[in-house]
Amino acid sequence: GYDISSLLKETGNVTLDGGFTNTASCTSAITYIDGDHGILRYRGYPIEQIAEHSSFIETSFLLIYGHLPSPAELTEFEGRIRQHTMLHEDLKAFFQGFPRDAHPMPVLSSAVSALSTFYQDSLDPFDEEQVEISTIRLLAKLPTIAAYAYKKSIGQPFLYPDNNLSLVENFLRMTFGVPATDYDVDPDLVKAVDLLLVLHADHEQNCSTSTVRLVGSSQANLFASVSAGINALFGPLHGGANQAVLEMLERIQAAHISTEEFMRKVKNKEDGVRLMGFGHRVYKNYDPRAAIIKKTAHDILAKTAGSDELLEIAMGLEEIALADDYFIERRLYPNVDFYTGLIYKSMGFPTRMFTVLFALGRLPGWIAQWREMIDDPTTKIGRPRQVYVGEGERSYVPLAER
Ligand code: ACO
């Protein structure tokens, strides 16, 4: 019941842009997206080329330092990460304090937040060496934290990282391995997880990255800022979407309803049902990451004996959506998460770990964006304005008179 244009006049010279649909919060040289044409580039390199040729570690280097590493730089970077994969024994004790059925995302953000207490020697955002060691610690320790969060949820003992293994191999072994039992890391699985991490590595000013930048703009340290980003990613409209997609497919399967019937509900907006994994704030064309993933989804599912039926339901939904006016008019296409949940499930990850995998992938993007923000001398503390729509001035009524 208020007239927004007159309120805006009263408020003065501000722009009201809820959800920041048309407001740039910063300049950035990291990731380029052209949503109308389905283009995504990291530091200028098309995502298709990165996905084909680059590893997750190399992609992390590229995002953070701005150039593709030389062989020596890559070896040095990877070697430093390998040296920092262990968690302090006292930090391991944190995991015991959470309820057994805790979702691993808040466990992840809590443990990352706690890194500020363990590494008080590296919290100065303007000391290059401290930022550098925090960067390495985060990249090295997040997979260990993620695996421990999972082990805790299934009541199994934690495995120490094995520094003869690569980052992804180590993560898979710590997640699926059992102490005193050999765990053979499947190279195809490693390749597929690596690809998924690469595809999630950065996506300019999305909700979690904007959160990392906003928290960091108060000069909060890298651990504190990334912890906030993990919490932003927890939401179902952002990182939680891959979990939501799988749950949607499983509901359709369990209820034995046809894809046509489900789509009718979506279009009629019955009970607020949305086609999860469809639509994107920026992509108004096919998400290029979804195109890459769709190609590999079949191969991975064939190898891991994943659910063909769920994949068929997914493809059926996509086929209807791509030919339906509701979706065409609104320019709703599959986003990266439409297929990732299916792939993660077929690899043996429980649904609650899907968003954790997204966080592992997005970490180098958060770090790169935080560092770009801190290094930019024009950065100011983020402090949006508002348009006040509450009561005008009124006089206080004493408690006895109410
Ligand atoms: N299913 C059905 N209808 C949809 C969907 C969907 N997935 N997405 C948007 N719409 C409709 C809306 O109802 C709205 O219709 P209207 O004009 O009749 O009111 C119109 O399309 C515009 O939608 P908005 O919500 O205004 O678009 P916005 O840019 O704010 O939302 C979002 C983008 C949140 C991604 C949305 O498309 C959505 O909820 N998708 C499903 C969740 C999802 O997959 N999230 C993952 C995002 S990608 C990522 O984090 C990696």
Q: Report the order of strands and helices.
A: HEEEHHHHHHHHHHHHHHHHH
Query: What is the CA-CA span between the terminal residues?
Result: 26 Å
Overall pLDDT confidence: 92
> Which residues form runs of ≥5 with pLDDT under 50?
none
Strand content: under 5%
Largest sheet: 3 strands, antiparallel
SSE order and pairing:
Elements: H1 4-11, E1 31-34, E2 39-42, E3 45-46, H2 47-53, H3 56-65, H4 71-82, H5 89-97, H6 104-118, H7 128-154, H8 167-176, H9 187-199, H10 207-216, H11 222-233, H12 241-255, H13 259-267, H14 288-304, H15 308-322, H16 325-329, H17 337-347, H18 354-375
Antiparallel strand pairs: 1-2, 2-3
Helix pairs in contact: 3-18, 4-7, 6-7, 6-11, 7-8, 7-18, 9-14, 9-18, 10-11, 10-18, 11-18, 12-15, 12-17, 14-17
The structure holds acetyl coenzyme *A (ACO).
Family: Belongs to the citrate synthase family.
Pathway: Carbohydrate metabolism; tricarboxylic acid cycle; isocitrate from oxaloacetate: step 1/2
InterPro entries: Citrate_synth-like_lrg_a-sub (IPR016142), Citrate_synth-like_sm_a-sub (IPR016143), Citrate_synthase (IPR002020), Citrate_synthase_AS (IPR019810), Citrate_synthase_bac-typ (IPR024176), Citrate_synthase_sf (IPR036969), Citrate_synthase_typ-I (IPR010953)
Summary keywords:
binds acetyl coenzyme *A, globular, mainly alpha, three-stranded antiparallel sheet, Citrate_synthase_sf, 402 residues
Descriptive notes:
Belongs to the citrate synthase family. Pathway: Carbohydrate metabolism; tricarboxylic acid cycle; isocitrate from oxaloacetate: step 1/2. Keywords: Transferase, Tricarboxylic acid cycle. There is one protein chain. With 402 residues, the protein is mainly alpha-helical. The chain has helices spanning 4-11, 47-53, 56-65, 71-82, 89-97, 104-118, 128-154, 167-176, 187-199, 207-216, 222-233, 241-255, 259-267, 288-304, 308-322, 325-329, 337-347, 354-375, and strands at 31-34, 39-42, 45-46. The protein has a 3-stranded antiparallel sheet with strand order 1-2-3. Strand 1 (31-34) and strand 2 form a beta hairpin. Helix 4 (71-82) packs across helix 7 (128-154) and helix 6 (104-118) packs antiparallel against helix 11. Acetyl coenzyme *A (ACO) binds next to loops.
